[in-house]
């Protein structure tokens, strides 16, 4: 039975991340960062819902809380899914290159290894969209948390993309790999600036108020 990294303590996870063991690695770290971004969005909603000042957003807040909760849980699951995809990939790379099934095996396990990090990207993109809405509808006291969530989601999105590209580069000219790369590039192009905009606007607002 494979190890469930999502059940480890933060200290244990980070210690294992720092070790010589190949998993968890960058993919697991990306998923964890994304989960933190979604969690901060969820927190901002939970601490705003029920407040009279924000009653007009009550239904939206409850919806966002549910959606952020789903994203957070899925991203944590992807830590383990990413780790499970490493063993067959490592095994494929050790096969003799003149083996008759070398190319097909490598293609299958490589595409499979892209699935978890690509889904991380999709989940992080959804988290960014939620954080945009949460920024407009949560308590002003929680804007720094929304900004932190956007930074975490942005970092996770970019980190997950690296874990897609490190795999697809071993399949030059492959149609599935090229499609994954195009889809990953599209997510980066759209959601990286959106996440950055959230963080920048929160920072500007906080600095302006602190400076009088």
The CATH superfamily label reads Formiminotetrahydrofolate cyclodeaminase monomer, up-and-down helical bundle
Shape: elongated
Q: Which stretches of 5+ consecutive residues score pLDDT under 50? A: none
The overall pLDDT average reads 93
Largest sheet: none
What is the beta-strand fraction?
under 5%
Terminal CA distance reads 58 Å
CATH topology: Four Helix Bundle (Hemerythrin (Met), subunit A)
What's the helix-strand series? HHHHHHH
Number of helices: 7
Domain count: 1
Tally the beta strands: 0
Q: What class, by secondary structure content?
A: mainly alpha
- CATH C-level name: Mainly Alpha
What is the CATH architecture annotation?
Up-down Bundle
Gyration radius over CA: 19 Å
**What helical percentage do the residues reach?**
over 70%
